Amino acid sequence: MAILITGGCGYIGSHTCIELLKAGQDIVVLDNYYNAKPEALRRVQELAGKEFPFYECDIRDADGLRRIFAAHKIDAVIHFAGLKAVGESVQKPLEYYDNNVGGTVTLCQVMAEMGCKRIVFSSSATVYGMNNPSPLQEDMPTGAVTNPYGRTKYVIEEILKDVCVSDPDWTVVLLRYFNPIGAHESGRIGEDPNGIPNNLMPYISQVAIGRLPRLSIFGDDYDTPDGTGVRDYIHVVDLAVGHVKAVDFALKHTGAEVFNLGTGTGYSVLDLVKAFQDANGVEVPYTIAPRRAGDIATCYSDPSKAERLLGWKAAHDVVDMCRDSWRWQSQNPQGYGD
Ligand code: NAD
Ligand code: UFG
Known about the structure:
By secondary structure, this protein is α/β, with parallel strands linked by helices. The chain has helices at residues 11-22, 38-48, 62-71, 86-91, 93-113, 148-166, 200-208, 236-252, 269-280, 304-310, 318-331, and strands at residues 2-6, 27-31, 54-56, 74-79, 118-124, 171-177, 179-181, 215-218, 230-231, 233-235, 255-261, 267-268, 286-289, 298-299.
């Protein structure tokens, strides 16, 4: 019995591999290295003190997937593999629909053919769109998304729910992540974005280490306590533990279930900058810039359903998140290197 992790070399996948191994699960990992480096997996094995099978494989390659399912008894799949850059998705929508939607359809077809009908999927708070008030709850309407990346998440959620309706043997767990930041407390694995980061925490860390001159804060005139955008930042290790709980749930239930994975607390951009400076004793110079297209003022979760049904609750606070992000960045100024 093993869990297949697609995209297991990436930021969230690598942390989840460690937590699954810690919980005693056997894992099989696949990744096409589009946005990851072999060094990440090497460090996961080093931290876990365990080896596990890895396949360099694309989720759109049905024969490659069949070979993996034929070689291992896979009980459930945690499906992280996908493209995730919002801005890039506007420039390259077909790549996003092909990789994220097409790849998920191929994966599910092979799963059904090979007799594995349990999937935990990486969705996103982005599916709640622009119109719902926070705290966001799982039964609020979804789909009013503003970019192709977000639409792939919405469409995949709908496809997976349809699959459950068509065949009662399927189990689908849709996990809507809020804003994952932080890194493993060892400082050995973390987020290693290509090029200039789009997301706030990697940008802050790269300013603090001197790779970038200053942070631009996108708007200080939102309807929030200090005018800057408010988000629900969640430690990536808490998110990883959420997947261990979600797999346990998937192994015991059928049908489709949706869970928010967040802390339930919102922090503004200025709150996070200050928390990072205070936690780490470093300066993060910033300027106020115009709003970024597509951003909303406030987005945070109601995480009570996950606590109720999965027995999961975030355990790390914002100081832990800032400290662990900085430990990873300062010990690995160039990420995993070339
Ligand atoms: P990541 O880019 O670090 O990890 C994704 C991994 O998937 C990478 O290792 C990449 O090489 C691999 N991959 C991409 N396309 C593939 C394909 N066709 N076949 C095989 N492997 C492929 O991203 P992450 O931050 O770890 O995110 C994991 C998942 O969570 C993604 O689906 C992402 O959309 C979703 N998500 C992330 C966030 C976030 O802020 N990080 C928020 C919400 C949802
Ligand atoms: N921000 C800045 N400067 C930056 C980067 C971000 O001020 O250089 C601000 C944004 O305007 C926003 C906040 O910091 O107010 C957070 O921005 P991020 O880009 O880190 O995160 P988002 O909330 O925009 O989006 C993230 C992921 C999406 C995902 C979404 C919801 O990038 O993929 O969370 O889960 F869909």
